[in-house]
Design goal:
By secondary structure, the chain is of the alpha/beta class. It contains 21 helices and 11 strands. The protein has a 6-stranded mixed β-sheet with strand order 7-8-9-4-10-11, with helices on both faces. The longest helix is centred in the middle third of the chain and has 48 residues, at about 190-240. The chain is elongated, with a radius of gyration of 34 Å.
Length: about 625
């Protein structure tokens, strides 16, 4: 996580960068026990620097393109002057040298334009991707839900590449108008009648380009949306490969994924038809315009009003002026980039989760309180929790049927999302008033399917808002039941995660280890032990009480054993906290027993099991 610049709580370790490098020995290497450095705020300065470099490259593309255009415009008059001097046996040495210099200069500037265009495209594409990804990660998970993984992947790859190429294409497009405009001005000095002839045909070319830009925008937008649909379906299929093979629905799934291809093909043909129509029309108009200008110039030459050199320059300028029709390709790239940028901006401008300037009071036990909390999704209230108080240091089990709002309550309690109404307080401080660093240092999460990222096993466990020591990493792995299988890996804790053949339960234990290593005053476990067997789960619960930093535990539970070991149980039904109390107290309620009922019979009543001492007050 990134810091907002505020100081961390004195009782916690400050945020630092990635874990220190190991010394090369097998196992987890030492972590430097130096005074932790504060992480920099979200890199606004770096982002501004990248944007400035991108604008600089775009300016270089524009400058080199304009310089090449100027050289191209200057060549015809110089060549015409050289030809006239040669025909009159005059001294054309300087003019021939200037002609050669202009030709070499145009080639040189064209090469530089290609070089800077490539660098500009790469830099801008990377900037677009970083901005879109940063915006997506800054937002609350609920705000990112409208976009499927395939849609996000399409926006960050294909659309980002098109958007990244737009600035250089725009600069080249601007420069492409320098040539015909400059040619018209130069042609006016050579012969006015030829200029009038060229001007008469330019409106038709302008109409062709305007129609192309208008029609291409809508076509490109539809094409990009269909690409995203195909990518989304493909990712869904890859995620459910085992289910599809087992069900024997491979052919049906293939047809579902490929169904939009026909629509994509139609849209692609339409795009090419628009492009081809624009090129064909301009391809007809340009030769006709050039031919008309040549005919007028020939008449002027025959009457003695133009020299041979002037005739050469006039014909060349007519070609350059009519070349405005060749900008269709650049215009198409700009239109594609504009539509693609609109899609990436939707990610980049996702409303972020705002943070405040406060820190938690020193030495707080982690008391959690929900006041008037309401969460609404699609017009339906999915959570209502008012007056829920959890004393610091208590272990709270959140139980209920599927869809009762358990995960929503866990997300609100740890401020992955903000409630639509009400407040959530930790040790008397509203979570939305805390700094980003303070929130993520003092509130940790463990999930059913943890996203572990890349790096070695040690780096995966240590990754977070603060940097735990090597001993803390090992202790967290032992508490999560992961130390045994980690030591059996080829390089122990130094094994790259990609080279570690891990089962679902082992990955879940690594996720638990990371949560334990970063446990603060509040630890939220959202179905984080679902892949563990009962015995391992019991060992993890015992280690959690003894080996992990003391604090409040909020556990989304499906097993009766978890609820029985908790100090307090919150029973949710239809998004409301129906009751709160100990497991034995709630067991007297038939509806509560029905939560754990299997096969139409009630489970066995809870047995007395030794538990850690509970706080004096466990009722909300």
């Amino acid at each position: 996580m990134r810091s907002d610049g505020s100081a961390a709580h004195p009782t916690t370790r400050g945020a630092t960068g990635v874990p220190a490098r190991r010394n090369g020995r097998k196992g987890l290497g030492p972590v430097a026990e130096t005074r932790p450095r504060e992480r920099r705020p979200p890199s606004e300065k770096d982002a501004a620097g990248r944007a400035e470099r991108g604008r600089g490259l775009e300016a270089l593309v524009l400058s080199c393109s304009v310089a090449a255009a100027v050289a191209a415009v200057a060549q015809p008059v110089v060549l015409g002057r050289t030809l006239d001097l040669l025909l009159r046996d005059g001294d054309a040495g300087h003019w021939m040298a200037l002609s050669a210099a202009l030709l070499v200069g145009e080639l040189l500037f064209d090469c530089l334009t290609s070089l800077f265009t490539g660098r500009c495209n790469a830099a801008r594409t990377a900037s677009v991707r970083r901005g879109a990804l940063a915006g997506l990660l800054r937002a609350a998970p609920e705000r990112a839900r409208p976009w499927t993984p395939g849609d996000v992947g399409t926006r960050l790859t294909l659309n980002a590449a098109d958007a990244g190429g737009a600035p250089a294409a725009r600069a080249s497009l601007v420069a492409s108008f320098v040539t015909p405009l400059g040619a018209l001005v130069a042609l006016a000095f050579v012969d006015l009648w030829v200029t009038v002839c060229v001007l008469a045909g330019l409106p038709a070319l302008a109409v062709v380009l305007r129609a192309f830009a208008r029609d291409t925008g809508a076509s490109v937008a539809a094409y990009q949306r269909t690409q995203a649909r195909i990518a989304s379906r493909l990712l869904e299929t890859l995620d459910g490969t085992a289910t599809i093979v087992a069900a024997g629905t491979t052919a049906r799934e293939r047809a579902r994924v490929l169904a939009p291809l026909a629509e994509l093909a139609d849209q692609g043909r339409h795009m090419w038809a628009l492009h081809g129509r624009a090129l064909a029309r301009s391809g007809v108009l340009v030769p006709l315009l050039t031919l008309a200008a040549t005919a007028v110039g020939g008449l002027r030459l025959a009457s003695g009003d133009l020299s041979v050199g002037d005739m050469l320059a006039a014909c060349r300028y007519a070609q350059l002026a009519a070349g405005v029709g060749g900008t269709a390709s650049l215009l198409g790239a700009v239109v594609r980039g504009r539509e693609a940028r609109r899609r990436t901006l939707e990610l980049e401008e996702t409303a972020p989760l705002a943070h405040g300037p406060l820190c938690l009071p020193p030495g707080g036990p982690g008391a959690l309180e929900l006041r008037g909390v309401r969460v609404v999704r699609d017009g339906r209230e999915v959570l209502r929790a008012d007056g829920v108080r959890v004393p610091g240091g208590a272990t709270v089990a959140v139980v209920g049927r599927s869809g009762s709002g358990k995960s929503v309550l866990a997300a609100v309690a740890g401020r992955l999302v903000d409630p639509d109404a009400g407040q959530v307080l930790l040790d008397g401080v509203r979570l939305d008033r805390l700094t980003r660093q303070e929130l993520r240092t003092e509130v940790a999460f463990a999930f059913e399917r943890p996203a572990l990222g890349e790096g070695t096993v040690a780096e995966v466990i240590a990754a977070g808002a603060r940097r735990p020591s090597s001993e803390e990493v090992r202790r967290a792995a032992r508490a999560a039941g992961a130390d045994g299988f980690v030591r059996r890996l080829p390089h122990g804790y130094d094994t790259p995660l990609g080279a570690a053949p891990l089962s679902g339960g082992e990955r879940q234990r690594l996720g638990l280890a990371r949560a334990f290593a970063h446990a603060g005053r509040l630890l939220v476990m959202d179905d984080a032990t679902s892949s563990l067997d009962t015995a391992t789960e019991h060992e993890v619960d015992r280690a959690l009480r003894r080996s992990v930093r003391p604090g409040t535990r909020l556990v989304v539970a499906h097993r009766q054993s978890v609820a029985a070991r908790a100090d307090l149980v919150l029973w949710l039904e239809d998004g409301c906290v129906r009751a709160a109390g100990t497991h034995r107290e709630l067991w007297e309620l038939p509806g509560y027993r029905a939560v754990f009922r299997t096969g139409g019979t009630d489970p066995a009543p809870p047995r007395e099991t030794p538990a850690a001492p509970r706080p004096e007050e466990v009722r909300p």
